[in-house]
Amino acid sequence: MSIETFQQYTYIIAAACFILSLKWLSRPTTARRGVTIGEIGMGIAILGALLTKGMTYNWIIVGLVIGALIGLPLAIFMPMKDVPQRTALSHSFGGLAAAVVGTAEFYLHAKAGTVPLTHFEMGALVMEVLLGYLTFTGSLMAFGKLQELLPSRPMVYKGQNAVNLTLFAIAIGCGVYLVADPSKTVLFPVLAGLSLLFGVLLIIPIGGADMPTVISLLNSYAGLSASAMGFVLNNPLLIVAGALDGSSGLILSIIMCKAMNRSFTNVLFGGFGQVAHVAGAKEQRPHRSASAEEAASILEVASRVVVVPGYGMAVAQAQHKVRELYDSLTKAGVDVKFAIHPVAGRMPGHMNVLLAEADIPYDRLIEMDEINPEFAQTDVVVIIGANDVTNPSAKTDKTSPIYGMPILDVDKAATVMVIKRSMSPGFAGIDNDLYYMDKTMMLFGDAKAFTGELVKELAAAKAGV
Amino acid sequence: MSNSLTIYIFIFMLATFIGLEVIKRVSPLLHTPLMSLTNAISAISLVGSIELTGTHYHDHLAVTLGTIAITASFANVVGGFVITDRMLKMFKKREPVKAPAKTGGAA
Fold first, then answer.
1. Are the C-beta atoms of residues A437 and A460 closer than 8 Å to each other?
2. How many CB atoms lie within 10 A of CB A403?
3. Out of A28, A250, A331, whose CB is closest to B30?
4. CB of B41 within 8 Å of any CB in chain A?
5. What is the mean pLDDT of residues A30-51?
């Protein structure tokens, strides 16, 4: 068997491993096996690539060493609360890798005396470079917003969409021209530059609450650019792995959009959060606030409690205190569940990871569709750092900006407790009618500190009995 | 259109459908690990980067950009797999121990 044939076999095995890897990820019981088979597949593929004939290895080794030095510490020491940022950063790495390889390929084939790229290959290369650079800067911007290096509020200006679309159209125009006439090399830097710029401009108007959708979308782009690279390099393994990533990102974006009752275009060009201030300025309405002691006395006698976590829990790093609350209630014979809205947090599945980190068993984390019918039989709902996903006006008020968004039906429960810093409206700036209901108790304070107080009060009450 | 080209488009189409089918089945519980795992897998661009860098060692631009690509994608390979495993390790099921206590009350 020649080296080339052997190399092709390693790529085929690797592709099979990746598919198995994603298949096994579907359930928590087999998920870790999925990671192992993915690692094996990647190892085999790297081995195959290193066997390419006529290679020099010096720079490859340099790249691998630096890559490991960047990737390993980032993965080992990163606190779980930073998962969204790290994900955004790795999307930008993925985009960068695809884009610079595309750039190198373009100039290699542009040299005199080389085999020119076919129109089709050039088309794939344009896609690779466009998506790659766009994902690179777009994900860096998302990283900046999530890390709060940049303001996480959407930045909107007049004519923004017109500017963005024009730039994008010019970039596409350059790409099409290059496909038709690859000798116009001067257009290539224009294409690359516009893609970089478009990535930045695309994320500027995106607010924090839209991050789950945008991260999923960038995930998809990173995969598609890797797939395009496979078309340029004639490597089916890249096509397969990239397509898997692309479809994964696509599915996640669709789920996120559905969970907000919004379309892609609305997320990308809508400038959500601007509608906000119109609805925000309402008259003061009476609400009921309560102390930790009062809240604890109600929780104590409850038999079914549902906790609704949101981004506020992540910000306050309250998950470990929430776990203590879960423990003390469970010990007292209370049935405690967690209601997870698909867009709670800053990326798909964000809440699940945080609660799992705090050692809360995953079978207590219930999806929206599954838990919604249960609220009517729930004694107490404790909302920790969530807001818009519990707002009943999404169902009743046609003028509300979030009208039609699927929400957690917390208003059906007997008592609702809301741990919140103040009465200020949430990200979307929309007043939440839930806070003014008779059954609602507002528990003002920091999510972590207040949950801690609840735990203390529960312990004290138990000791007193 | 050359023959291999149509085959590549075929491969892309089939892989996309497999991806959609397989990933639809992933529990929303694991969407974050899913994203970091697919991220590690799409760092397969490492293979392309290695081939580019290794075979064009006379071309400074190709070697420079290739090395950058190897660095970026290998960081994703290593980081992606490690962090996915770190996350999955945290997902524990404790129901068999906890469930009986649900109605049993405090001891």
1. no
2. 15
3. A28
4. yes
5. 96
| Average pLDDT score over residue span A342-352 | 93
Contact criterion met (CB < 8 Å) for A234 and B50: no
Tens digit of each residue's pLDDT (9 = 90 or more) over B29-49: 999 999 999 999 999 999 999
Tokens of A30: 């087999």
Q: Report chain A residues whose CB lies below 8 A from the CB of B22.
A: 19, 22-23, 26, 244
Confirm or reject contact between A151 and chain B (CB < 8 A). no
Amino acid in the structure at residue A152:
S
Q: Is the pLDDT of residue A321 over 70?
A: yes
Determine whether A446 is an active site residue. no
Q: Which residues contact B91 (CB under 8 A, 6 or more apart)?
A: A28, A31, A352, A356, A362, B29, B30
CB–CB contact B62 A26 (8 Å): no
A104's tokens = 């190198």
- Tell me if B65 sits within 8 A of A101, measured CB to CB: yes
Q: Which of A327, A335, A363, A388 is catalytic?
A: A388
User: What is the layout of strands, in order, in the sheet containing A365-367?
Assistant: A365-367, A335-340, A304-309, A380-384, A415-420, A440-444
ipTM for this prediction? 0.90
Q: Between A22, A70, A235, which is nearest B75 by CB? A: A70
For residue B32 the two structure tokens come to: 């974050």
Give the closest-approach CA distance of A59 to chain B in angstroms. Answer: 6
- Among A11, A41, A68, beta carbon nearest to B78: A68
The model carries a pTM of: 0.90
Chain B residues touching residue A98 (CB < 8 angstroms): 45, 69
Q: In this structure, what DSSP letter does residue B28 have?
A: G
